[in-house]
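for the writeup, i need someone to sanity check this before i put it in the appendix. the sequnce is what the collaborator sent (i think, or maybe the updated version? ugh). structure was predicted straight from it, no edits. if anything looks off just tell me and ill rerun, i have time this weekend
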Amino acid sequence: MFKSLVGAMLFICMSFSSVAAEKQVLGQTEMMSVSQGGIVFEARMDTGAVNSSLHALNIKVLGGSAKKMKDNVGKTVSFTTENEKGQQQQVSAKIVGTSTVSNSQGTETRYAVKLPITFGDSTRTVKVNLRNRATMDYKLLIGRNWLKGKYVVDVSEQKLIGPTADISIVESGLIFDTRIDTGAVENSLHATNLHIIGEDKINMENNVGKDVTFTTMNEKGEKAQVTARIHSTSLIRNAQGSEIRYMVTLTLGEPGQEFKVDVNLRDRSKMTYKLLIGRNWLQGHYIVDVDM
């Protein structure tokens, strides 16, 4: 009896593993579009949401809107959507329902439409809620209705990176031959000729919130002038003692895969690497392999 029970449990586990193996693994975000040839979104996978959600502006019910939103079900709605890069697209779709959502700001009723969402060569037409996502990082949210039966989500997805890498800083237009340093908490960028309008030269803390313009240079000697907002200062301790540096937010990463992250500014003229990548850029994104 015991052997039969163990055998049955093993069979069930193997069956679940087989089913999971047949499904495609997605990361926390993937590049997707909402119609063939349409703009591409960096979509967030959200297994907590039943339905998918799309950023929508200028929503208009064709032929006129009824006073109650639910009375517009069956009509066609047109709207403007916009991705994270500011690219826009006009979309029309049939209203298939409405949903009322309660949150800390109150209650909100949204239209739901059927839209084809494309990932790679696969397109699945699902119910999508329309809402203004202008203040949100991701303009397309993928819910369980698109994922179900075909995909699994791996939120621990991390890429390998070696001890050095070519890293782009979007605001500078330069690519740096960068040292990857797991011993450093923060990223550090070569910066000289710092200029702050209305600078307090005695107390650096009083310059937080102001714009700083500085010159940076990569390992090839290519230079660029960058302006960024000082959001804080950082006390750095090293073998030479301690110093306070300005912290700014810049967009950096492997070319085409950049994201915003905090960077401290210092004169790295005497250092081989003009950009040093620390744990605040690596964490949650990369595993460092020094043999690469």
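The longest strand covers residues 88-103. The helical segments are 2-22, 144-147, 279-282.
thx in advance!!
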